[in-house]
Design a protein that fits this description.
The chain is an alpha+beta fold and 169 residues long. It has helices at 3-7, 24-27, 49-59, 80-89, 121-130, 157-166; strands spanning 42-43, 63-67, 74-79, 103-104, 140-144, 151-156.
Length: 169
């Protein structure tokens, strides 16, 4: 079955159906695990910004998760490009705690898409393009176990693009 047939309505009309991603045919059943995301590196809210930056630079990470010191619960994340901008503007300093610069996850009234190692790449791409409810694009996804107890890694749009580039046609 070719991609056009997948999106065709029973009467042959394709106008109201969403188009399939140009990359979708390259995924061929691949999941987040096939991206081989690096292990998660988390900071604590009380860590210094300089420590978090050093950890991110050493591993070439663009996002770090922030977890509670006591419960290891996921509190938010550091977007390293945004953090560099905040430092440049003087909004935060190297010795400030991570909690001054982290972006907190909104827990109340928010629905989160669970991304696990078994999530198909088509779903991950959809998440990046429209978020959980289609209102906001996402730059990265926190990869957890199915019960959302452990942060296993972070997947970015760049990871998905690199996977497509190196996947044989």
């Amino acid at each position: 079955m070719n991609p056009e047939e997948v999106n065709r309505k029973p009467n042959g009309d394709m106008s109201a159906l969403p188009s399939r991603s140009l990359w979708a045919n390259k995924y061929r059943g691949a999941t987040v695990e096939d991206l081989d995301p690096p292990p998660a590196l988390s900071s604590r809210p009380t860590d210094s910004i300089s420590t978090a930056l050093l950890n991110a630079y050493e591993r070439d990470y663009t996002h770090l998760t922030v977890v509670s010191e006591d419960t290891r619960a996921l509190l938010g994340y550091l977007n390293i490009p945004r953090l560099k901008q905040l430092l440049k503007e003087g909004s935060v300093g190297d010795s400030d705690p991570v909690e001054r610069a982290m972006q907190k996850f909104r827990r109340k009234g928010s629905i989160y898409k669970i991304i696990t190692m078994d999530t198909p790449l088509e779903e991950l791409e959809e998440f990046f393009n429209g978020g959980v409810d289609g209102t906001a694009a996402q730059d990265f996804a926190v990869v957890t176990d199915g019960a959302r107890r452990f942060v296993l890694g972070v997947a970015t749009k760049g990871d998905l693009e690199e996977f497509v580039k190196r996947r044989p046609a």
